[in-house]
Amino acid sequence: QVQLVESGGGLVQPGGSLTLSCTASGIIFSISAMRWYRQTPGKERELVATISAGGGSRSYADSVKGRFTFSRDNAKNTVYLQMNSLKPEDTAVYYCNTGKSWGPGTQVTVSS
């Protein structure tokens, strides 16, 4: 059974930084592409970033390009989303995803 567990969310001021983590179990992590999505109330879930199995290929939503960095440590079955220069519009629940599996999400709130 696939399990994804996110951590690292919280409250941060505009311009601040946070790093989200997602640890996976029940999958062969080293061959699994991973994704971060986010969702705010009343809106569809938005794809934020994707990373290939080996970590050599990454893509980002235009809204976060240049501010967010997606990385992975296959030895720890963990991916990271480094979020810099955070804006109020980044406020959302952030979800880790691989295939059809989702984590429970972690809340990120950007507010002064």
Keywords:
4-stranded antiparallel sheet; 0% helix; mainly beta; 51% strand; 7-stranded mixed sheet; single chain; 112 residues
3D architecture notes:
The protein has 112 residues and is mainly beta. It has no helices and eleven strands. It has strands spanning 3-7, 10-12, 18-25, 34-39, 46-51, 58-60, 68-73, 78-83, 92-98, 101-102, 106-110. Strands 2, 4, 5, 6, 9, 10 and 11 form a seven-stranded mixed beta sheet that branches. A four-stranded antiparallel beta sheet has the order 1-3-8-7, with no helix packed on it. The protein starts with a strand and ends with a strand. The model has no long low-confidence stretch (mean pLDDT 96).
Uncertain segments are none
Number of helix segments? 0
Order of helices and strands: EEEEEEEEEEE
Report the count of strand segments.
11
How helix-rich are the residues, as a percent range? under 10%
Estimated share of beta-strand residues: over 45%
Secondary-structure content class: mainly beta
Main beta-sheet strand count, sense and barrel state: 7 strands, mixed
Mean pLDDT: 96
Radius of gyration: 13 Å
- Overall 3D geometry? globular
First and last CA, distance: 40 Å
Lay out the secondary structure.
Elements: E1 3-7, E2 10-12, E3 18-25, E4 34-39, E5 46-51, E6 58-60, E7 68-73, E8 78-83, E9 92-98, E10 101-102, E11 106-110
Parallel strand pairs: 2-11
Antiparallel strand pairs: 1-3, 3-8, 4-5, 4-9, 5-6, 7-8, 9-10, 9-11
Entry summary:
The chain has 112 residues and is mostly beta strands. It has no helices and eleven strands.
